[in-house]
């Protein structure tokens, strides 16, 4: 392998364009940042497809694949990324592609997925016995379809540079922006934290989020058809965050016994009532801080955490950041000052 690290990304019909271009732009920006510092580029970017040439994305635009994946020397690839998109299901049934992924995996330094691309890796059997995540909307599909995979629905990515041969070799990430976080983590492992932060600043990213930070999008408004027995209760909870939301209180509101409610929560949401309530409260607190609508103490009271220490513990547990740091980095006032 030469001095340049080849970052290859698989493409296929109806791939999500941002799953491809988002992470790849981060690597390209690392090259630009190194050139600004008088250093040579580090990364070579390559698009792979079933055949070289144009590939239509789900956005209707086309990407141009450099090579057919069958023709590449996998030992010359440092990192292969497998993106998600509307075309994932067809790729999960493409025996030739799945066999190729299994064949090249031992030759790759790193193999990762973005968004629902995790389903392709799972279909190839490459996530068996491993921790994996994906976009929140596909978490249940990953759980239901691949029982040998330890599915983490609450993290941004599973890359761990210190887990040699494990999560440093095969890893997954959640939605589009989580793929960007993953790319920054890979750059930090390759070139150091200072360069990764310089790239993040250049891309106007206020924080390189740690992989363990949680996803939230599915929690506040799940579709009623997905949670038929809980729909009314889940609609009620966000409007009563400052009330008593103990198991007993929720069970009374839902007209169920506490035991039945706990069982239904696990069946329909994959978590217990207490955990769900904490996550909804945290999402509400995050939004209030992000909009700079109230002090941290007021936010803690309004969202049912009561004391700021309870809010701080929940932020650290799920977001790996303190409420104060979150307010400083993401608050509306901070944004306005940066743009002034």
Automatic annotation (TrEMBL):
Residues 231-329 form the HTH araC/xylS-type domain. Signal peptide: none annotated. CDD domains: GATase1_AraC_1. The lineage of its organism: Bacteria, Pseudomonadati, Pseudomonadota, Gammaproteobacteria, Pseudomonadales. This is Transcriptional regulator, AraC family with amidase-like domain. It comes from the Bacteria. The keyword Transcription regulation applies. GO terms for molecular function: DNA-binding transcription factor activity; sequence-specific DNA binding. Keywords: Transcription, Transcription regulation. It comes from Ectopseudomonas guguanensis. InterPro entries: Class_I_gatase-like, DJ-1/PfpI, Homeodomain-like_sf, HTH_AraC, INH-QAR. The keyword Nuclease does not apply.
């Amino acid at each position: 392998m030469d001095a340049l690290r080849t970052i290859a990304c698989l493409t296929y019909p109806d791939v999500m364009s941002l799953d491809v271009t988002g992470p790849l732009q981060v690597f390209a920006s690392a090259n630009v940042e190194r050139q600004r510092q008088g250093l040579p580029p580090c990364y070579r970017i390559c698009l792979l497809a079933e055949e070289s040439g144009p590939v239509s994305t789900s956005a209707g635009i086309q990407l141009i694949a450099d090579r057919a994946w069958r023709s590449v020397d996998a030992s010359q690839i440092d990192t292969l990324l497998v993106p998600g998109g509307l075309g994932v299901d067809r790729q999960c049934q493409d025996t030739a592609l799945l066999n190729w992924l299994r064949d090249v995996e031992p030759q790759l330094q790193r193999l990762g997925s973005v968004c629902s691309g995790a389903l392709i890796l799972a279909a190839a059997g490459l996530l068996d016995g491993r921790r994996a995540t994906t976009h929140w909307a596909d978490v249940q599909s990953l759980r239901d379809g691949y029982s040998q995979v330890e599915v983490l629905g609450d993290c941004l990515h599973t890359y761990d540079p210190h887990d040699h041969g494990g999560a440093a070799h095969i890893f997954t990430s959640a939605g589009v922006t989580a793929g960007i976080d993953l790319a920054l983590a890979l750059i930090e492992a390759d070139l150091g934290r200072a360069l990764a932060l310089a790239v993040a600043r250049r891309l106007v990213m206020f924080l390189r989020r740690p992989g363990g930070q949680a996803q939230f999008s599915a929690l506040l408004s799940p579709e009623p058809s997905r949670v038929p027995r809980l729909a009314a209760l889940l609609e009620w909870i966000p409007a009563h965050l400052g009330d008593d939301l103990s198991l007993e209180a929720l069970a009374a509101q839902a007209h169920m016994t506490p035991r039945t409610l706990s069982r239904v929560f696990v069946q329909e949401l994959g978590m217990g009532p207490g955990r769900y309530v904490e996550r909804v409260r945290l999402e509400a607190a995050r939004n209030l801080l992000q909009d700079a609508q109230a002090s941290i103490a007021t936010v803690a009271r309004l969202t049912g955490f009561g004391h700021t220490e309870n809010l701080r513990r929940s932020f650290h547990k799920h977001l790996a950041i303190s409420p104060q740091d979150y307010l400083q980095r993401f608050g509306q006032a901070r944004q306005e000052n940066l743009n002034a």
